[in-house]
Amino acid sequence: MSSPSVSVILPVYNTEKYLPRCLDSLLGQTFSDFEILAVDNGSTDGSAAILHEYAQKDPRVRVLSSTPMDVASARNEGLKAACGRYVMFCDSDDWVEPEWIETLFHAVSHSGTEMAVCNCIIEEEPCHGRNKAATEYNLLRHRGKMSYLSARQKLNRVLWNKIFDLDIIRKKHISFPAGREHDDNAFMFMYFSFPGTLRALKNRYLYHYVLRADSLMGRLYHSVRTGHELDLLYAKRFVYDWLIRWGHWHDNAGDFLAELHQDLFLCRQNLRQEDLPRIAETAITLFGGLSLPSHVKVSPVIQAVLHTNKERLLSFLSRPDETVTLLKYAGIKYGRKIQGWSQEKLYVFSLQVYKRYAAFCGGQRSV
């Protein structure tokens, strides 16, 4: 097929146990006008043989590479080779419902939107390591149409429950930070940096997301040292360079720096106390001295980063719970817990006195 409607990018690395189920679910779609771009990251098990076996049986399966690479580089290779009008992503240890592609394709091509998002079914394997909040982060909690600006604040940053416009990706030079984990977070921030509308299909559970202990995220939550513990910050720098290069920094600086604040404390959660100086040094090296548009207000934490004040930044990172803020109104303290990603407001006698956004990690926040 020279120009299918949808290209599905499938990075593969040592998932021979799960790969046949994944490929069977993709090839069993009710929608047939698609291609599968399977990028083998240098698997050392039988994954490559499985891919070539399926490629011989079905011309929609294209095996792109057997060179060892990271998942971000594999996704970039898939984007370069994609021929579809739209692009979707799938993880090789997951599987999908038969109408996954058809539903999202029709939602994006017939509803006056540029993007569509579905919900997922979470498949938990033993000892996957993630708590309830981290697990439920993957669930879609909103439905209907929303702007990209709203979606940036409300939706998760996973790739596999969405359909993307390949023309936008190429015209805006959007890609993944090669060699870094959390590449999906960077990609989604860039994609949501422009005006657009998406349709969220909360009631359509079309993707089966498998939680494994030995996956990339599984190792993260088990605190396995892989050398990628601070990749969230490096991926954010990749986004900053892209915003500067293509002239989008002024319009996105506020959201970028607000998320950087969150990213610092996400890194802190996954590292030990003795690692805090490394977090501070890395943040200051990557983001110290960045230009701040006059209309943007930042937190004291980000001020410490921008002003390269390591000691002050360490004092923030060393606090037992950054997410707790005491709100005083008329001399009285009010406190309650927030769960989820949506915008939260606090009212006293019908007057809005406080507003903030819950952490993207799906964790619990108190105000």
State the total count of DSSP E strands.
15
- Principal-axes geometry comes out as globular
Helix and strand succession?
EHEHEHEEHEHEHEHHEHHHHHHEEEEEE
Q: Give the helix level as a range of percent.
A: 25-40%
Largest sheet: 9 strands, mixed
Q: Could you tell me the mean pLDDT?
A: 84
- For the termini, the CA-CA separation is 54 Å
Unreliable stretches covering 5 or more consecutive residues: 321-344, 353-367
Secondary-structure content class: alpha/beta
- Strand proportion, as a percent range, falls in 15-25%
In angstroms, what is the radius of gyration?
Answer: 21 Å
How many H/I helices?
A: 14
How would you characterize the overall build of this protein?
With 367 residues, the chain is of the alpha/beta class. 38% of the residues lie in helices and 23% in strands. Strand 1 (6-12), helix 1 (19-27) and strand 2 form a beta-alpha-beta unit. Helix 10 runs antiparallel to helix 11 (249-269) and helix 12 (276-287) packs across helix 14 (310-317). It is globular. Mean pLDDT is 84; it is low at 321-344 and 353-367.
